[in-house]
Amino acid sequence: MPLDLYLIFKMTKLFITLSLFGFLSLHAQESSPWTLQKCISYALENNTNVQQNILQGEIAKNNLKQSKLSRIPTVNGNGNHNYNIGRTIDPFTNSFNNTSIQSNSFSISSGVLLYGGSQVNNTIKQNHSAIEANEAGSAVIRNQIALSVSSTFLQIIQAEENLKLARSQNEITKSQLERAQILFQNGATNQSTVLNLKAQSANDVVNIINAENAIQIGYNTLMNLMQYPLDQPLKINADMAISEPQQLTESVREIYESALQNLPEVRQAQALIDQSKYSEKVAGARLQPTISAYGNVNTVYSQSGKSISFGDTSFIPIGYTENTLETVLVPNVETNYVDKAFGNQLSDNLGQQVGFSIAVPLFNGYRNRTAIENAKMNTKISELNLQSTKNQLRNDVTNAYTNLKVAQSRYEANIQNAGAQKLNFEFSQKRFDAGAMNSVDLLAAKNQWSQAQMQLLNSKYEWVFRTLIINFYKGKELSL
């Protein structure tokens, strides 16, 4: 094979291998189960509430930028083109004229606020507080979404465990049913036993269907929280081992103090208080005088603008002297009026103006006073909102602490109950096999054991979820 063809063959083979490897890697990545952190990250990236809050944050940043730029001078240009018809004042000669005249005026003006009662500085601080409140509000939304995703994620895992338990119970029932059918065919038991076990098997199937439905509902809720496309499959890592939580060592007061330091709700409420206080200062500054400096450059052009040119000079006799009778001559200069050029008029008519202005608010219908009073009321509302936030947080923490303790005690009690019910079922199975117990009592023992297993499973996941909430209040990352 020629060298060129050999190199082309090797490069093509390498390209196909790399492409196939990339495709398989991407496919494996897409089909791999979703972890909790991946679900939370996806939800935070696609949730509309988070996106809206981000846009509101951009607006707050623009307001801050604008308030800082209000310190620099303003510059504005102005231009007019006028048609004066009839008796009007010629802007060039400033005299009355009865002819139609076109004219232009141009100006550039600038102004800067020298003193405004600290309105600008307090407005900047107010917008800083607005950004802090927005960032804290964004953290509140993100925490709520993360907590909802974690709860739903855990519910799906619990539903998967319930499904395994339901299928396991159904397998036990099927095994008992097969043995009962053999015994019935051999005349060792009656038909009632077979029918009871068939009814129990059908009930187990219903439990399986209910568990599968709970899983699907959990996935529907999770996909809605994540804003996940409905036409794409989603599979979480439901096979992960959920171990028992560690024993809680902190007191309810310690957890509450941690929540005050870690949760953004308190920071948001405090930022809103700061924003309201700066609003008071901005409103109060409107009662102070304002001092500004200004400047203006202007010029005009008129169609009637003329320039004079001088021609030949001649002497005209106007009389004779009295004594010598000599002729008295006066010079006569020929003058011509021509239209003055546009550019020349603009340069010749250029004017400048600079100055200072002061504005003192004397009476404005009590609008400024009303604004100050309203700002003070808003500050009090913000302070009450902070206290209400702390009270609500205290109530949530104490309830979560109590629920955790109850869930832990319930789980420990269900461990004992499940163990006892298992021994009872095993003993009942032996008695049934020996013919000392009927199928009704056996099924009752089996259902009690199944119910005890279900209660143990549910209490375990309730304890895990309650621990998750307490860790959230303690400022820990949400993880299973």
The rough form would be described as elongated
Radius of gyration: 45 Å
Distance between the termini: 60 Å
Instruction: Give the strand content.
Output: 15-25%
String of helices and strands:
HHHEEEEHHHHEEEHEHH
Count every helix, treating DSSP H or I runs of 4 or more residues as helices. 10
Number of strand elements:
8
| Class inferred from helices and paired strands | alpha+beta
Keywords:
alpha+beta, single chain, 4-stranded antiparallel β-sheet, elongated, 64% helix, 480 residues
Please provide a written account of the structure.
The chain is α+β, with helices and mostly antiparallel strands and 480 residues long. The chain has a domain of 32 residues. Helix content is 64%, strand content 17%. A 4-stranded antiparallel beta sheet has the order 1-4-5-8, with helices on one face. β6 and β7 form a beta hairpin. α3 packs antiparallel against α4 and α4 runs antiparallel to α5. It starts with a helix and ends in a 7-residue tail after the last helix. The N terminus is likely disordered.
Protein topology:
Blueprint: H1 3-31, H2 36-46, H3 48-69, E1 74-84, E2 88-89, E3 96-97, E4 101-115, H4 119-185, H5 191-226, H6 252-262, H7 264-285, E5 290-302, E6 306-320, E7 327-339, H8 342-348, E8 351-359, H9 367-433, H10 439-473
Antiparallel strand pairs: 1-4, 2-3, 4-5, 5-8, 6-7
